Amino acid sequence: MKRPADLARRFLELADRDHKAFLKLVPDREIDDAVIGFHAQQTVEKCLKAVLARHEVAVRKVHDLHALMDLLADRRLPVPPMRKEIIELNPFAVILRYELAETESLDRSLAKTILEAVRRWADECMANQ
Predict the structure, then answer these.
(1) Contact by Cβ (8 Å): 73, 79
(2) CB–CB of 24/13 below 8 Å?
(3) Considering only CA atoms, which of 32, 14, 58, 40 is closest in space to residue 115?
Protein backbone atom coordinates (compact mmCIF):
# COMPACT_ATOMS: atom_id res chain seq x y z
CA MET A 1 0.00 0.00 0.00
CA LYS A 2 1.22 3.47 -0.81
CA ARG A 3 2.21 5.81 1.97
CA PRO A 4 -0.18 8.76 2.47
CA ALA A 5 2.34 11.28 1.15
CA ASP A 6 2.99 9.19 -1.98
CA LEU A 7 -0.72 8.70 -2.64
CA ALA A 8 -1.34 12.41 -2.14
CA ARG A 9 1.40 13.30 -4.62
CA ARG A 10 -0.04 10.84 -7.14
CA PHE A 11 -3.50 12.42 -6.82
CA LEU A 12 -1.94 15.85 -7.45
CA GLU A 13 -0.10 14.54 -10.51
CA LEU A 14 -3.40 13.25 -11.86
CA ALA A 15 -5.11 16.54 -11.00
CA ASP A 16 -2.42 18.40 -12.91
CA ARG A 17 -3.02 16.21 -15.98
CA ASP A 18 -6.72 17.11 -15.96
CA HIS A 19 -5.91 20.76 -15.30
CA LYS A 20 -3.55 20.81 -18.29
CA ALA A 21 -6.27 19.30 -20.51
CA PHE A 22 -8.77 21.85 -19.19
CA LEU A 23 -6.42 24.75 -20.03
CA LYS A 24 -5.82 23.44 -23.55
CA LEU A 25 -9.53 22.92 -24.26
CA VAL A 26 -11.07 25.99 -22.61
CA PRO A 27 -10.30 28.53 -25.37
CA ASP A 28 -11.79 26.32 -28.10
CA ARG A 29 -15.49 27.19 -28.48
CA GLU A 30 -16.02 24.04 -30.57
CA ILE A 31 -15.32 21.85 -27.53
CA ASP A 32 -18.50 21.06 -25.62
CA ASP A 33 -18.82 22.44 -22.09
CA ALA A 34 -19.43 18.90 -20.78
CA VAL A 35 -15.96 17.83 -21.87
CA ILE A 36 -14.28 20.87 -20.35
CA GLY A 37 -16.43 20.66 -17.24
CA PHE A 38 -15.44 17.03 -16.81
CA HIS A 39 -11.76 17.96 -16.65
CA ALA A 40 -12.52 20.81 -14.26
CA GLN A 41 -14.51 18.51 -11.97
CA GLN A 42 -11.81 15.85 -12.10
CA THR A 43 -9.10 18.38 -11.23
CA VAL A 44 -10.97 19.48 -8.13
CA GLU A 45 -11.92 15.93 -7.15
CA LYS A 46 -8.30 14.77 -7.28
CA CYS A 47 -7.07 17.80 -5.31
CA LEU A 48 -9.61 17.06 -2.59
CA LYS A 49 -8.61 13.40 -2.54
CA ALA A 50 -4.93 14.39 -2.34
CA VAL A 51 -5.53 16.39 0.82
CA LEU A 52 -7.63 13.61 2.31
CA ALA A 53 -4.96 11.02 1.46
CA ARG A 54 -2.23 13.19 2.96
CA HIS A 55 -4.21 13.22 6.21
CA GLU A 56 -4.68 9.44 6.04
CA VAL A 57 -8.41 9.62 5.41
CA ALA A 58 -9.60 6.66 3.37
CA VAL A 59 -11.86 7.63 0.50
CA ARG A 60 -14.14 5.25 -1.33
CA LYS A 61 -14.60 5.70 -5.06
CA VAL A 62 -16.82 8.74 -5.11
CA HIS A 63 -17.08 11.60 -7.58
CA ASP A 64 -19.31 13.82 -5.45
CA LEU A 65 -17.38 17.00 -4.60
CA HIS A 66 -19.88 17.89 -1.89
CA ALA A 67 -19.31 14.54 -0.15
CA LEU A 68 -15.54 14.97 -0.34
CA MET A 69 -15.71 18.49 1.12
CA ASP A 70 -18.02 17.22 3.86
CA LEU A 71 -15.46 14.55 4.66
CA LEU A 72 -12.79 17.24 5.02
CA ALA A 73 -15.04 19.28 7.31
CA ASP A 74 -16.04 16.21 9.35
CA ARG A 75 -12.35 15.49 9.99
CA ARG A 76 -11.75 19.15 10.85
CA LEU A 77 -9.39 19.53 7.93
CA PRO A 78 -9.12 22.72 5.88
CA VAL A 79 -11.83 23.07 3.27
CA PRO A 80 -11.05 24.64 -0.09
CA PRO A 81 -11.98 28.17 -1.06
CA MET A 82 -14.96 28.80 -3.32
CA ARG A 83 -16.92 25.90 -1.85
CA LYS A 84 -20.24 27.08 -3.28
CA GLU A 85 -18.78 27.50 -6.75
CA ILE A 86 -17.01 24.12 -6.59
CA ILE A 87 -20.33 22.36 -6.09
CA GLU A 88 -21.47 23.72 -9.46
CA LEU A 89 -18.90 21.42 -11.09
CA ASN A 90 -20.58 18.30 -9.65
CA PRO A 91 -22.88 17.70 -12.65
CA PHE A 92 -19.81 17.32 -14.86
CA ALA A 93 -18.66 14.20 -12.97
CA VAL A 94 -18.13 10.91 -14.72
CA ILE A 95 -21.80 9.91 -14.64
CA LEU A 96 -22.73 12.90 -16.82
CA ARG A 97 -20.46 11.75 -19.61
CA TYR A 98 -22.22 8.43 -19.89
CA GLU A 99 -25.81 9.46 -19.32
CA LEU A 100 -25.75 12.37 -21.75
CA ALA A 101 -27.61 14.48 -19.22
CA GLU A 102 -28.12 18.15 -19.87
CA THR A 103 -26.27 20.66 -17.70
CA GLU A 104 -26.10 24.38 -17.46
CA SER A 105 -23.44 25.97 -19.60
CA LEU A 106 -20.01 26.14 -18.02
CA ASP A 107 -18.65 29.52 -17.03
CA ARG A 108 -15.16 28.77 -18.28
CA SER A 109 -13.55 31.80 -16.68
CA LEU A 110 -15.06 30.97 -13.29
CA ALA A 111 -14.01 27.33 -13.68
CA LYS A 112 -10.43 28.47 -14.34
CA THR A 113 -10.49 30.61 -11.20
CA ILE A 114 -11.86 27.70 -9.16
CA LEU A 115 -9.16 25.32 -10.39
CA GLU A 116 -6.37 27.77 -9.64
CA ALA A 117 -7.72 28.43 -6.13
CA VAL A 118 -8.23 24.75 -5.33
CA ARG A 119 -4.79 23.78 -6.62
CA ARG A 120 -3.14 26.51 -4.49
CA TRP A 121 -5.17 25.31 -1.49
CA ALA A 122 -3.99 21.72 -2.05
CA ASP A 123 -0.36 22.87 -2.20
CA GLU A 124 -0.79 24.82 1.02
CA CYS A 125 -2.36 21.82 2.74
CA MET A 126 0.55 19.62 1.65
CA ALA A 127 3.11 22.15 2.86
CA ASN A 128 1.40 22.53 6.25
CA GLN A 129 1.29 18.81 6.93
Answers:
(1) yes
(2) no
(3) 40
Amino acid identity for residue 27 in this structure: P
| Measured distance CA(30)–CA(43) in Å, rounded | 21
pTM for the structure as a whole: 0.91
Sequence-ordered list of residues with C-beta below 8 angstroms from that of 36, at least 6 positions apart, any chain: 22, 25, 26, 106, 108, 111
In tens, the pLDDT along 30-74 reads: 998 989 999 999 999 999 999 999 999 988 788 889 999 999 999
Geometric angle at alpha carbon 47, from 52 and 26, rounded to 5°: 165
